Amino acid sequence: MPDGSTSDAFVAFERVQKSYDGETLVVKDLNLSLPKGEFLTMLGPSGSGKTTCLMMLAGFETATHGEILLDGKPINNIPPHKRGIGMVFQNYALFPHMTVAENLSFPLEVRKIGKSEREAKVRRALDMVQMGEFGGRRPAQLSGGQQQRIALARALVFEPELVLMDEPLGALDKQLREHMQFEITRLAHELGITTVYVTHDQTEALTMSDRVAVFDDGRIQQLDPPDTLYESPQNSFVAQFIGENNTLEGVVKEITSDSAVVQLDDGELIDCKPVNVSKVGERTKVSIRPERVEFNKDRLKEDAHLLKATVKEFIYMGDVFRTRLSVAGNDDFVIKSRNAPDQVRLKPGQQIEIGWLPQDCHALDA
Amino acid sequence: MGRQRPIRNSYDGDIMSELKGTGQQTADAPTPEDAFHEAAALDARETDSQSSGRNGGPVLAADGTPLKRSLSRALRRQKLRALALIAPLLIFVLFSFIIPIGSMLFRSVENGFVEQTLPLTVAELKNWDAESDTLPDEALYQAFVTDMVAAVEAKEHTKLGSRLNYEQTGLSSLFRQTGRKIKKIDPETDGPFKDKLIDIDDKWGELETWRTIKTHSVRYTNGYFLNAIDMQRTAEGAVAQPENKRILITLFMRTLFMSLVITTSCILLGYPVAWILANLPARSANMLMILVLLPFWTSLLVRTSAWKVMLQQQGVINEVLVWLGIVPDDARLVLINNQLGTIIAMTHILLPFMILPMYSVMQTIQPTYLRAAKSMGATNWTAFWRVYFPQSVPGIGAGSILVFILSIGYYITPEIVGGTKGVFISNRIAYHISSSLNWGLAAALGTILLAVVLILYWAYDKIVGIDNVKLG
Ligand SMILES: Nc1ncnc2c1ncn2[C@@H]1O[C@H](COP(=O)(O)OP(=O)(O)OP(=O)(O)O)[C@@H](O)[C@H]1O
Ligand SMILES: [Mg+2]
């Protein structure tokens, strides 16, 4: 888990703890650092402390312990309005009594920027989110997606170096959501802004971010680029949380530095890569992605261990086939195969043998 | 349904391109129009199946009566039942509110009593020129004696005296005495009456007396309203009251001014309380709310009397100040029986009416607005003033309307703690209702008060917009 050296980091959390009631820690020992220009996403289930982290960074909550550094300087004692951090709130928080243009010029006014310059900046910001004609509207006269874009423009209009976004797309439908995901990443990269983005939608996290911090139980479970996160989860929580995943339980039988054999609870043996296990006899949860499961023996090594499986259900999904199998007592084992001309369509009740490359299958903590 | 369309059309044209831009899901989404068409289609289908079964003609219900008629009969029964349910309230409101107000409005101009009591005299007075320097002729005196004898028999002459006494002092005793002595005169045989009447009282030989009677013999008068604004109705038209009788305009002005001061102090005191209430955790907020509502649960009279104990010169506040040495013993503060006393007591009494609407509006203002403002660089004060305060204005508006209108008509508290300098126009109205019995003037004052409230309400609607007022 790279928590990085904090010296060249733009934002850094150092051993930060937070408790609201003095009894339970909502954030336990948070270490995080991000360089300038990075798009970092905090991903995690509800109540895992993501918003709390953002609020501490923005200055609306104070850390119970530890230090938060911005550009190398501790900010624990700087009041929120002096931190210069742009923020998009989950419910947009557009001021209902101001027009869109007034909303956008508010942060400029409090910075005492002259009228003409203000107007120019507001216009540029509106154009940036393609809302140029909507300056005279009130927020209530806009659709959800339009409000979202205005909230984004408002957080960016005073050119902050750091922008925090708390589930800004939570209320949007899928299509608009995807469009906005693209817009946000484009803007963030174009303007070179450092972004901390909070979501509990894992696709969103994977598609948008440079790195993703997976939160659970007040800790960062894994902090990695999306591909690493998906392909080499560090523990079974991350494996479960990110993407679709098949889990089998068993005991380690053989182990070397880069491969292991696990005996499943019904006695069968499988190949996998040891991640969180170190010695023979340890219990483990083995995790494998549906698209990495092979049932065509030609594509596997000769000595690969194979598992017997019964086809339970075949679902045609257009671009992929999704097949539910019963494997080693697990009735919810899913495999996905691309809809290619030569692809076999399995039938319910069919008996097959499945296997995989050892590096695709991770032996994680039990 | 009809309402949906204009709203849609009122969007700028570009909204349509917006909708097209977002693609399918907008097109597929059910719109109100769809629902409407569906409902219409359903209706059509139903009527179709009905009429096709009966091969044309009016649609009949199961018992053979036309469907429309039996439907309207069923609806009528429903309406009657609804009406019966609200009837008690309706009748109550009618008798306790609408009719009294109507009668008050009417009473402020109604003046039939003079003509009823002195019908012949009033008819004769029409021939007399009130501007002239000559007394009326014998015919009028004869008519008057005839009327007067009848009035004395009916015991109406003292009432008439009181009525005319509002306009000219001394007429009350004149009518009483004349009534006693006129019994000796027989209107049939004892003429001429002119000198006899003047013998009974010199006032019958004065032009002024007859002018007053003539001026106030009309059936509908503007006299009460003129009185209410410190003027009087005379033979020469409307003129200002003599200096020493002009108090009503001052009272109106004072009522408005003091209501304004009370409203302002309620805003200043209530706003922070409402703010704390809205931002405290629920449990503590409930406790505080009980404190705010406590005054509601105590009798108004008790509260006002308590203020008397607090504010008088030997009262709690003065004693404490003297004891602390802030105020010398021989110069105790005058806190009661003046405007200050009224303002203090009424602010306290009306405060909940200000706090409650402000609180209910502030509760709906999310704390994220303030956070958003601060994250954009606003100081606490700017964030409050530019973002929070404007959103709380509807609450202030609602509270102000309530407090202002309530205080403009307040009566008990000024009566008890207001002394002479701190009384309101309502105290004057009460005086005319119960002491001077000049109900016409009381009604005119009440009507003006009602009009002032309505005008202010209208002005508020024009300036702030009544839609902006939230009462809960
Ligand atoms: N003001 C507060 N007082 C007390 N506890 C709080 C407060 N705010 C949050 N919590 C608690 O802290 C924990 C973390 O909350 P937080 O809002 O950070 O979660 P989150 O990760 O943002 O969740 P979500 O995805 O649902 O927004 C939760 O258990 C929550 O109950
Ligand atoms: Mg949250």
TrEMBL record, chain A:
What cellular-component terms does GO give this entry?
A: ATP-binding cassette (ABC) transporter complex
UniProt xrefs under SMART domains: AAA (SM00382)
**What PROSITE patterns does the database record attribute to this sequence?**
ABC_TRANSPORTER_1, ABC_TRANSPORTER_2
Q: Which branch of life, at top level?
A: Bacteria
Note whether Cytoplasm occurs among the keywords.
Answer: no
Q: Which Gene3D superfamilies match?
A: 2.40.50.100, P-loop containing nucleotide triphosphate hydrolases
Q: Which catalysed reactions does the entry list for this protein?
A: ATP + H2O + polyamine-[polyamine-binding protein]Side 1 = ADP + phosphate + polyamineSide 2 + [polyamine-binding protein]Side 1
InterPro entries in the record: AAA+_ATPase (IPR003593), ABC_SmlMolc_Importer (IPR050093), ABC_transporter-like_ATP-bd (IPR003439), ABC_transporter-like_CS (IPR017871), Mo/tungstate-bd_C_term_dom (IPR008995), P-loop_NTPase (IPR027417), PotA-like (IPR005893), Transp-assoc_OB_typ2 (IPR013611)
**ABC transporter domain sequence ranges:** 11-242
Question: Which UniProt keywords are given for this protein, alphabetically ordered?
Answer: ATP-binding, Cell membrane, Hydrolase, Membrane, Nucleotide-binding, Translocase, Transport
The answer to whether the entry has keyword Transport is yes
Q: Which family does it belong to?
A: Belongs to the ABC transporter superfamily. Spermidine/putrescine importer (TC 3.A.1.11.1) family.
> What PANTHER family does the record tag this protein with?
SPERMIDINE/PUTRESCINE IMPORT ATP-BINDING PROTEIN POTA, SPERMIDINE_PUTRESCINE IMPORT ATP-BINDING PROTEIN POTA
Briefly state the protein's biological role.
Part of the ABC transporter complex PotABCD involved in spermidine/putrescine import. Responsible for energy coupling to the transport system.
Name used for this protein in its record: Spermidine/putrescine import ATP-binding protein PotA
TrEMBL record, chain B:
- The main place the protein resides is membrane
- Could you list the residue ranges that cross the membrane? 82-106, 256-278, 285-302, 340-362, 383-412, 439-460
The membrane topology noted for this protein in its Swiss-Prot or TrEMBL record is: Multi-pass membrane protein
**Lineage of origin:** Bacteria, Pseudomonadati, Pseudomonadota, Alphaproteobacteria, Rhodobacterales
Task: Tell me the ranges covered by the ABC transmembrane type-1 domain, including all copies.
Answer: 252-460
Which is one Gene Ontology cellular component term of this protein?
plasma membrane
- In terms of domain of life, where is this protein from? Bacteria
Renumbered residue ranges of the record's region Disordered: 1-64
**Which Gene Ontology terms describe the biological processes this protein takes part in?**
transmembrane transport
State the organism named in the record: Thalassovita gelatinovora
What is the designated name of this protein? Spermidine/putrescine transport system permease protein PotB
Annotated compartments: Cell membrane
To which protein family does this belong?
Belongs to the binding-protein-dependent transport system permease family. CysTW subfamily.
Signal peptide coordinates: none
Q: Which UniProt keywords apply?
A: Cell membrane, Membrane, Transmembrane, Transmembrane helix, Transport
Tell me which Pfam families the record gives: BPD_transp_1 (PF00528)
Asked if the Swiss-Prot or TrEMBL record annotates the protein with the keyword RNA-binding, the reply is no
Q: Known PROSITE patterns for this protein?
A: ABC_TM1 (PS50928)
